[in-house]
Design a protein that fits this description.
By secondary structure, the protein is of the alpha+beta class. The protein has 4 helices and 16 strands. The chain has a domain of 195 residues. A hairpin with a 3-residue loop joins strand 11 and strand 12.
Length: 283
Amino acid sequence: MKKNLAVLFILFGVLFNAQNLEKLSKEINDEGIALYRSEMASWYGTDLFIANYEKKENIGGYFSYIDDVPKCIFFSKDQKVIGTISFPTNYDPKDASLDLKERNFTPLETEYFTIRQNALKRIQNDTIFKVYKNTNLNIVPLIKNKVKKVYVLTGPSVNNVVIFGNDYLITFDNKDEVKNVEKLHNSMIAQNIHDEKVGKTISGIHSHVIKNWQTITPTDICTLMLYQKFTDWGTYTTVSKKFVSIWNSNNKLVIMKSENFKNMAENILKNKDEKSKSEETEK
């Protein structure tokens, strides 16, 4: 009876851990997709706005958000909306709606604008933020279930490179003041899309060492989705002391405990070795 109970407790523990990791995977993936949708609107929205707006000296900045559809908002230096670009889900610029009429912020846009500006002030005055050669920092505000946060991603200003890391998360209190700033990676990782020695790369891997960010991050997911059409990577993996995270190009994410991944890999190699020996014996 005691042995049966012990087995049940073990099975319950395995199932509980699996469910927790599945829930964690979904949360990270969903956050990464939200970042991706915002950044895609910013990418194409910037091109459309700059090509059609003449008074460049009047531009104060921009941000993107989801309001049924992805929108990119440009505002003037006196804090008026001067451009609204709305996108279909496929983000095809030719199907986008461009409105250059000047107007006030909506209440939701005011919230996004406020945390964006407060994040920008913090970035300009906090030495935790680094800017590297041939890169720029992208500010991505998100509001979900009344929780307000800003992710800061590093984007390359040159071709043939994908950048992970040198990214940050800024969270806010109920007065929209900065509550916390944290790094998501310990450093910046640059991976070439086409390598001179091996040709076009088909995948990638990097490690996570920061205690609170042992899994793949939403910023990693966002970056992988943004550059998928350039890299065509089938999978990408992050490893840490606690977890191995595997993302594939169908935007499916699996997170495993590192010890379980190691055991699985060892069993695969063992079975492969035994099969090879068996085939040699049959010869």
